[in-house]
Specification:
The protein has four domains: 1-170, Alpha-Beta Plaits (2-Layer Sandwich), CATH 3.30.70.270; 178-230, 5' to 3' exonuclease, C-terminal subdomain (DNA polymerase, domain 1); 247-345, DNA polymerase, Y-family, little finger domain (Dna Ligase, domain 1), CATH 3.30.1490; 358-431, no CATH class. Helices cover 31% and strands 29% of the residues. It is built from 13 helices and 18 strands. The chain has a five-stranded mixed sheet with strand order 5-6-1-7-8. A four-stranded antiparallel sheet has the order 9-12-10-11, covered by helices on one side. Strands 13-16-17-18 form a four-stranded antiparallel sheet, with helices on one face. It is globular. The protein starts with 6 loop residues before the first strand and ends with a strand. The protein binds a DNA duplex (18 and 18 nucleotides) through residues 15, 35-36, 38-45, 57-63, 102-106, 186-192, 220-223, 243, 245-253, 288, 290, 298, 300-306, 336, 338, 340, 343.
Length: 434
DNA sequence: TCTGGGGTCCTAGGACCC
DNA sequence: TCTGGGGTCCTAGGACCC
């Protein structure tokens, strides 16, 4: 915690809805709700006119419709939001390079890292930034908090929202924080709040009573230690100007549950292409492929596998993800499916002009349906058949289809297989050595 | 006709290696 | 031969954030 109020948190007010109202004058002064507009949609952002009627983010759109039937329900125009966000972030960067965007509509700014920062003029600096944002974006408003730490700046930006500013005077942090609900501390969500409530902790003040060890016992190492400090407004986390991407994923909730494997596999193909495209655009590739499945009863499971080499290739991602689906019982239907990649590496892209079609050039795909394999892979399910005359493969009860793929993906060839033994009712996927 | 999509971070257990 | 500890990687799940 530094001695001057020089960390700013800026939060654009009702961002998606405000962009819509800016671009469509007929929506100004009216309730606007942006989010999923299908039967299973939820609200992403509600304008303040809609919040009056109790509409909140993450609320089901069906409920929002019931509460506020006269609102405009919009699906969202992310290109417009990204552009508005870019303009705002660019303006913030004029203050200092040390800005940390948290999302399209939020960022920390280390004002103290600016070349000409004067702590006595914080109010003027903030006023100039907010005026510029309004001018540059066609009237978007922002709420701002300034304090000696990220924690207090973030909390302060909520205090005079919307279109307001709050500066926490250095030295008053703990006093400002004490009377607030423990849930104002970022990271204290519903589950943690409930655990705390059960031991009588409601406010930040209450959170100062237990020792660090007691909080660790209650909430685990990481949360326990950090909450013990946060409760005392003790926070020296730096504003981080750049953060590397850790994962890339796509998911979709269907309007109706899907139990048809062929249909799900086709969706996986589409998602794999989407993930692949985004990996390539960012010069990334990853080793761990994750399939996310939400069942009809909302039970959610992930299945993942780690390849021996990073890939950004749509077909490898699709083959791998399909293999992960193969072992799952989907007879009651899935409401959501997702494909993700993590374990990312940024490799030097050696073939900038390659297209998806070009990728096929050096690929080798061998598919065989056999009772005995002609090639072997690690972990191949081979066991001795006591009733027969030797070693069998898979269940030993029938034909097994194996698809071996070799693809040349920098920095080297990637060999994957997908084995499907109907009698086992399970697919087996992974990598093999050539 | 309950409950989005895109992320991050943490925990915990097992495998494996030294 | 037995026991133990630590570190790292992998998988799965969960909490949380906007």
């Amino acid at each position: 915690m530094r001695s001057t109020a020089s960390i700013m948190h800026l939060d654009l007010d009702a961002f998606f809805a405000s962009v819509e109202q800016r671009d469509k004058p007929s929506l100004r002064g009216r309730p606007v709700i942006v989010g999923g507009i299908g039967p299973r949609g939820v609200v992403a952002t509600a304008s303040y006119e809609a919040r009056v009627h109790g509409v909140r983010s993450a609320m089901r759109t069906a409920e929002a419709r019931a509460r506020c039937p006269h609102a405009a329900f919009l699906g969202g125009r992310f290109d417009a939001y990204r552009e508005a966000s870019r303009i705002v972030m660019e303006r913030l960067r004029e203050e200092t390079e040390v800005i940390e965007p948290l999302s399209l509509d939020e960022a920390f700014v280390d004002l103290g890292a600016g070349p000409t920062f004067d702590p006595d003029r914080v109010e003027d600096i903030v006023a100039a930034i907010r005026a510029d944002i309004a001018n540059l974006t066609g009237g978007l408003t922002a709420s701002v908090g300034v304090a000696s730490s990220k924690l207090m700046a973030k909390i302060a930006s909520e205090i005079n929202k919307p279109d307001g500013v709050f500066v926490v005077e250095p030295g008053t942090e703990a006093d400002v924080l004490g009377p607030m609900q423990a849930t104002v501390i970022p990271g204290v969500g519903p589950a943690t709040a409930e655990r705390l409530r059960r031991v009588g902790i409601l406010t930040v003040e209450d959170l100062r009573s237990p020792s660090e060890d007691e909080l660790v016992r209650l909430l685990g190492q990481s949360s326990g230690r950090s909450l013990h400090r946060m409760a005392r407004a003790d926070d020296d986390r730096p504003v981080m100007a750049s953060r590397e991407t850790k994962s890339v994923s796509v998911e979709d909730t269907f309007e109706q549950d899907i139990s048809d494997r062929v249909q799900l596999e086709a969706i996986i193909e589409r998602m794999a292409r989407s993930v692949s495209g985004r990996l390539r655009k960012n010069g990334l590739s990853g080793r761990t492929v994750t399939l996310k499945m939400r069942h009809h009863d909302f039970e959610t499971h992930t299945r993942s596998t780690t390849l021996s080499n990073p890939t950004d290739n749509a077909r490898i991602l699709a083959t791998t993800a399909r293999g992960l689906l193969a072992g799952e019982d989907i007879s009651n239907g899935l409401r959501l499916l997702g494909v993700g990649v993590s374990g990312l590496a940024d490799w030097v892209q050696d073939d900038l002009f390659a297209t998806d079609e070009d990728d096929d050039v050096e690929d080798e795909v061998v598919e065989e349906t056999v009772t005995r394999p002609t090639r072997w892979y690690p972990g191949m399910d081979v066991h001795h058949d006591d009733h027969g005359d030797g070693w069998v493969w898979g269940s030993g009860l029938g034909r097994v289809t194996v698809r071996f793929e070799t693809r040349w993906t920098p920095p080297g060839p990637v060999h994957t297989f997908l084995a499907d033994d109907p009698a086992l009712g399970a697919g087996h996927t992974g990598t093999f050595d050539a």
